[in-house]
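From the shared-data thread, chain only:
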Amino acid sequence: MDDLSSAPKRAESEVILSGKGLWKSFGGLTAVNDVDIDLHQNEVLGLIGPNGAGKTTLFNLISGAYRPDRGFIRFSGEEIAGKRPDQICRMGIGRTFQITKPFLRMSVLENVVTASYFGRVGKQSLRACRDRAEEILGMVGLGTKVKARGSELTLVERKRLEFGRAMATEPTVLLLDEVIAGLNTTEAQEMVDLLRRIRARGTAILMIEHVMRAVMEVSDRVVVLHHGQKIAEGLPRQVVSNPDVIEAYLGGMAHAQSA
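Structure, as tokens:
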């Protein structure tokens, strides 16, 4: 694995989320193979790689859906591997899912109020949760859809709702699984601008994304996975010029786009 980072070294105290020696296998398939990953405070870290590289499995390890076979995960200095997803959420790690699953019979506002009520701050008053939900829905571009049911939303609107529900849990670390894929150019730029605003408010972001323009524009650093292993890490412009990354991922993307 090539460590390409030439950015100034950050103090260890600034690492808010750290995974070391992470392994996860399913039967005979090793999905995550001895991966180390650090996310610093107030950082946007891009996570890229071909389909099946282990990116979402890594998210599932961090968020508590899976327990690693080996290795550890520390958040704000505390070991979190083995904790339930709801416990990890309340500690301050929020996430989105690539396949969105809103509460279809609930309104958009009720979806976000629910996330706020059970989020990191704990059970606030419903009025406080409603006020926060309305603020977030305005932020993600769903301010005019508060009364719509989840079942009535388009795919793009469901992605925005998924993002809003994650934000409503008041995370200090946000795991984003392809929130930009499928958006048009204008919508993608709006999402990039939103990510910058969220980072400016002190939230660290780890994002899986296939839209390389967005990855290059918003990420401070990029980690590349291939067959469950980390093959590169560093500044975006350095990672995309790495021959191993081009062969494993970017070359295939270029071929697919030209086909």
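Residues 100-170 form one domain.
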